[in-house]
Design brief:
The chain has two domains: about 80 residues, no CATH class; about 160 residues, 2-Layer Sandwich (Alpha-Beta Plaits), CATH 3.30.70. It is α+β, with helices and mostly antiparallel strands. Helix content is about 35%, strand content about 20%. It has seven helices and twelve strands. It binds zinc ion. The site of zinc ion has 9 residues, from loops.
């Protein structure tokens, strides 16, 4: 577990995380063309800045698609307050949210939501949510406090620039106004490795998620060291070739890495 600290301290910690052992070494193989490309893990816990960015961008894409496709036009912030110690607040937040949203969904049938965990600059957690109905701030605040959370709640209308949402760069800018990159990455470090940091209504799936499966079917991950990172970039140390005699893809060494690792 990482030290339970404030955001500046956590960011320092995140900066010095080691790069995942397999990140940048394995390859994606396109089974139609035989082309390979470097595999990056895209985890927030990887020391590669690129992977942390990928992690955030995946979240941005998911959230903006959900907002658009399910019309989640109300933005919500729920806090934990300072009743608990920092580390306890992180552990308790998911339970509080589970209880609170069960109550809210029961009271407002058809309420849809997606929420994401973020780290506040003082090191405490808060939740950002996008919901389908307008519910008064007082009701959110009372419900959340009754379930063990803080009493501070904030709700506002999501400003989505119509027509621009499909453009990726705009999406990122748009969502970044609500969900911060450093806050999301830090939150990932603050909870246990497999703990949740994102919640959404049951059965909620974006079009992208539904079509991605089909697109991925012609790509496979080759879990052998194909690439070797140098200062200039990624050198191929092996290639994947199709062996007709055994009827499958095999890894063949092309060169030995010149630099000792
Ligand atoms: Zn990585």
């Amino acid at each position: 577990m990482p030290p339970q600290q404030t955001i500046p301290q956590m960011l320092e910690y995140v900066k010095h995380l080691p790069v995942k052992r397999y990140c940048g070494r394995y390859a994606w193989l396109n089974t139609d063309t035989g082309e390979t490309s470097v595999f990056f893990c895209g985890l927030a816990s990887c020391g590669r800045v690129y992977c942390q960015r990928l992690y955030y961008l995946k979240r941005v894409r998911l959230i903006s698609d959900l907002i658009r496709e399910y019309d989640l036009s109300r933005f919500l912030t729920l806090t934990m307050g300072h009743k608990l110690a920092r580390c306890d607040a992180w552990g308790t937040m998911p339970h509080v949210w589970n209880k609170a949203r069960t109550m809210m969904v029961r009271k407002h049938p058809g309420l849809q939501y997606c929420t994401i965990l973020e780290a506040h600059k003082d090191g405490y957690p808060h939740l950002h949510g996008f919901v389908s109905h307008y519910i008064r701030q007082r009701e959110w605040s009372n419900t959340f406090a009754a379930c063990g959370g803080g009493s501070y709640a904030w709700i506002e209308r999501v400003e989505v620039v119509d027509g621009d949402v499909g453009r990726y760069v705009t999406k990122q800018l748009n969502i970044a106004r609500y969900v911060g990159k450093e806050q999301v990455i830090t939150a990932r470090q603050m909870v246990k490795p497999r703990a949740r940091t994102f919640w959404r209504s049951q059965g909620m799936k974006t079009e992208y998620e539904q079509t991605r499966q089909a697109a991925k079917s012609s790509a496979i991950l080759v879990t052998e060291d194909i690439y070797h990172q140098t200062e200039k970039g990624f050198d191929k140390r092996a290639e994947v070739v199709y062996s007709k005699s055994i009827g499958q893809w095999v890894v063949r060494m092309t060169s030995q890495p010149s630099v000792k690792e």
